[in-house]
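Lecture notes, part 5. Sequence design as translation. It can be helpful to think of inverse folding as translation between two languages: the language of shapes and the language of residues. The source text, in structure tokens, appears below.
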């Protein structure tokens, strides 16, 4: 059950800045930012923010690309100029609102799963997670329960999260991780065989396995 894409490198020493918290609750928070189309993170990506000495870990479950005055003006044209459309994709920063589901938090040397004592503060910066952080946080499969039970995240997001966690592992470690996730899903969804089967298929598809 090897992932078809190459595992992410640990060479990136610093996490990438995404945006800042604009709304927060116990379970979720919203991130506001302006990014080019190429820089918008994918569904299921792991992100981090902070509350004091606590590092809050979450995954992206929603993305909203927000139009502005230029977008609305161009939308009124029958056929927007292709060069402008291409420029907007490649060069122009797009207002983006990102929904993040909190999975747990880290306070060295411990990792905790579930809701932190406080949500992140407004305007707190949000960054991508480094591969080593993702591996550490997903060593135990406890994070799967939050994804299974979350109203905010679809099963497609769950599959994307599993893929993101598997991609930072190499060789047999990928397979071991996917087997561990599959066993946890079987345990959690023993009374929901239809959903369980669909989820396992989504994960196999996301992982590029037959």
């Amino acid at each position: 059950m090897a992932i078809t894409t190459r595992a992410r490198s640990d060479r990136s020493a610093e996490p990438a800045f995404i945006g800042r918290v604009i709304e927060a609750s116990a379970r979720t928070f919203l991130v506001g930012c302006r990014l080019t189309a190429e820089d918008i993170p994918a569904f299921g990506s792991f992100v981090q923010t902070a509350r004091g000495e606590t590092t809050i870990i979450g995954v992206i479950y929603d993305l909203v690309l927000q139009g502005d005055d230029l977008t609305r003006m161009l939308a009124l044209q029958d056929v927007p100029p292709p060069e402008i459309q291409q420029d907007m994709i490649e060069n122009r920063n797009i207002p983006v609102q990102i929904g993040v589901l909190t999975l747990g938090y880290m306070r060295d040397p411990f990792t905790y799963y579930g809701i932190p004592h406080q949500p992140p503060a407004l305007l707190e910066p949000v960054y991508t997670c480094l591969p080593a952080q993702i591996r550490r946080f997903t060593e135990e499969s406890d994070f799967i329960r939050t994804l299974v039970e979350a109203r905010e995240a679809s099963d497609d997001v769950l599959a994307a999260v599993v893929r993101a966690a598997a991609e930072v592992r190499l060789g047999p470690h990928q397979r071991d991780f996917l087997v561990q996730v599959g066993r946890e899903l079987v345990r959690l969804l023993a009374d929901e065989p239809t959903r369980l089967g669909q989820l396992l298929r989504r994960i196999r598809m996301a992982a590029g396995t037959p």
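The translated text above is only one of many valid answers, since several sequences can fold into similar shapes. The longest strand covers residues 94-107.
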